[in-house]
Specification:
Helix content: 10-25%
Largest sheet: 7 strands, mixed
Radius of gyration: 19 Å
Structural class: alpha/beta
Number of helices: 9
Oligomer: single chain
Shape: globular
Length: about 325
Amino acid sequence: MRCMVLDRAREPLQLRERPTPRPGAGQLLVRVHACGVCRTDLHIVDGELTGGRLPIIPGHEIVGTVLEAGADARHAVGERVGVPWLAGACGECDFCRSGRENLCDRALFTGYHVDGGYADHVIARDDCSFAIPAQYSDAEAAPLLCAGLIGHRSLRMIADAHRVGLYGFGAAAHVIAQVAVDEGREVYAFTRPEDAAARALALRLGARWASASTEAPPTPLDAAILFAPVGALIPAALTAVRKGGVVVCAGIHMSDVPSFPYSLLWGERVLRSVANLTRADGREFMTLAARLRIKTTVETFPLEQANEALARLRAGRITGAAVLVNAA
């Protein structure tokens, strides 16, 4: 099989040929049609996330077709499935037994601990894979597998907040903004000062207001979700939310948070993080995606141009989401 391999952090991925793996019990061999390029992949490639396996094939927003199913698999050969960030959890710890497998200390993650979707084949655990709603093309569906899932989990953390600020209007925000608008919320989008394309996209998708992250919103917010991995935005978001408001940090990695006066947190404001996802998140969001018909804005790249896609994401030159595609 063809794959893009990260041998060492801060080095370009290398195109390699490897033998196609075979699935074991409870596993699937998936022919990869599309794989989203997530900011978490960038954190792994750039060495900001350590502790994973090297060499590794990155990628955890995988859409493909089951070619072979191991014993006890529920997905059938020929079925289209999505493979997300969560590759498995222990099932035994307090977190797993209380429905919080996303916090399992022995969890494995796709493209970090086990090889991911920057390839034309991947092995995935059957019980961690999801059916993909039929109305989405492969490339359209790829961002749902992480950007959508993390965005959805983050949105649930703000309960019934009506005025919602989204900081960083990229892959996750452009998906979850549509869910928020469908739920009757007002969306306020914050982007890099130079990113007029992202602001235009936010307004097309129903945002009430879109401006640079250096600007204050026109009205106090009930909640804010930070998708941009910029710690300096936390004081800005706390300033933007009214008393009792919630600020959610949705990234797996963020630059250091600067000190800020207690007055920004006072008034029962809440600052919290969102970590990973559960399989229940995946099932719930795919049901929602089937009903809502979320429009994903994607820029596609052939597999061998993964380094170019990562470079453009690093430079902030992707509108919506980047997706690697394999020829049929």
